[in-house]
């Protein structure tokens, strides 16, 4: 099993609730600002986008990169984070 980053472990330790989007593993400060300006200010809203894409990591990553200015690494880490959260809580 892969090692989890402390940030990913913290995110997966409890339900999303009202956490800001910056709590999602892989979301940098700059990307968080971009997401907030597009209306994705809460982690649950970003999770909703992931679910609308049928938990398709490749599609979600492409959307993050193209529409929100994420790097490839940020897109991969954040999609992994949301996928893992879904596995734990859905």
TrEMBL record:
Location within or outside the cell: Nucleus
Alphabetically ordered keywords of this record: Nucleus
GO CC terms, sorted: condensed chromosome; nucleus
Listed GO biological process terms: chromosome organization
UniProt GO molecular function: DNA binding
Main location (coarse class): nucleus
Domain of life: Eukaryota
PANTHER family: BARRIER TO AUTOINTEGRATION FACTOR 2 (PTHR47507), BARRIER-TO-AUTOINTEGRATION FACTOR-LIKE PROTEIN (PTHR47507:SF4)
Assembly with partners or alone: Homodimer. Heterodimerizes with BANF1.
Function: May play a role in BANF1 regulation and influence tissue-specific roles of BANF1.
This protein's name: Barrier-to-autointegration factor-like protein
Organism listed in the record: Dipodomys ordii (Ord's kangaroo rat)
Gene that encodes the chain: Banf2
